[in-house]
Amino acid sequence: MNIALVAGATRGTGRGIAEQLGAAGYTVYCTGRTSGSRRSEMNRPETIEETAALVTAAGGTGIPVQVDHLDQDQVKALVERIEADHGQLDVLVNDVWGGDRLTEWNVPVWEHNLDNGLRLMRLAIDTHIITSHYALPLLSRKPGGLVVEVTDGTKTYNDGHYRLSLFYDQAKTAVIRLAYALSHDLREHGCAAVALTPGFLRSEAMLENFNVTEETWRDYIPKNATWAVSETPAFAGRAVAALAQDPDKMRWTGQSLDSGSLAQAYGFTDLDGSRPDVWRYIEEVEDGGKKADPSEYR
């Protein structure tokens, strides 16, 4: 039996990862702040119970646990429960975020709400460190473990682009560095740590923000061609499942990875059978000026 903890599994990338680990047969602890009885400050309807049910329906075992990953006692209790139940942890996915409503885009730091900015940083970085502090002693007990730090943007992209908010920029870049640092801590234990970014993600919130659905999103392509290279949360989920099951996963440790390039390496596809490669599209077409149809990157 393989055991995974997806911290921040309520929606979006975290939900996609949890479900695809379920499809690979994992028992997945699905954590987050929003349950059927209480919503987080994000005030969205998706719940950890729904995610856990998707994991089970996919073929795994989903276990929802309401956890605030800024609360050390709650995280400690979560890991103690996993240890008591299974005595092992094979995959840790740090996907806690929750900073969307706190970000002010194209606003200089001196005008950005400071409390919101600092809260964003805590949600994006402190949660990952706290969870790693308590979970990695269990994960590192045997070789082959995997830690995935979910971020937005590859190292190459983020090093060359300002992410339109100082706080967002720092948060998403710091998570990439966290994976690099964790890879050093875990190397002697034979466990890998990587940073992973999805591409242009058709999350629940993204579809809602643009007033489209999973059935109608192509209607937005004439307004923004990048939508043609967009992906479902399952795509990143399949990337994590492929990494987790790779006996040679140490070849990736410490690296900044993206779903599109991993699809090329492992041969998996998105739900529609395509392999969207948005970061290569951005580099070659949007930044590089190459004349190309977005469908060439799918």
Core attributes:
single chain; 298 residues; alpha/beta; Rossmann fold; 7-stranded parallel beta sheet; 10 helices; 7 strands; 12% strand; NAD(P)-bd_dom_sf; SDR_fam; NAD(P)-dependent dehydrogenase (Short-subunit alcohol dehydrogenase family)
Provide structural commentary.
The chain has a seven-stranded parallel β-sheet, sandwiched between helices. It contains ten helices and seven strands. The chain has a single domain (3-208, 233-275), classed as 3-Layer(aba) Sandwich (Rossmann fold). β2 (27-32), α2 (48-58) and β3 form a beta-alpha-beta unit. With 298 residues, the chain is of the alpha/beta class. It has helices at residues 12-23, 48-58, 72-86, 114-139, 155-160, 166-187, 204-209, 233-245, 259-266, 278-287, and strands at 3-7, 27-32, 61-66, 91-94, 146-150, 192-197, 256-258.
Task: List the topology elements.
Blueprint: E1 3-7, H1 12-23, E2 27-32, H2 48-58, E3 61-66, H3 72-86, E4 91-94, H4 114-139, E5 146-150, H5 155-160, H6 166-187, E6 192-197, H7 204-209, H8 233-245, E7 256-258, H9 259-266, H10 278-287
Parallel strand pairs: 1-2, 1-4, 2-3, 4-5, 5-6, 6-7
Helix pairs in contact: 1-2, 1-8, 3-4, 4-6, 8-9
Organism: Nonomuraea endophytica
InterPro entries: NAD(P)-bd_dom_sf (IPR036291), SDR_fam (IPR002347)
Protein name: NAD(P)-dependent dehydrogenase (Short-subunit alcohol dehydrogenase family)
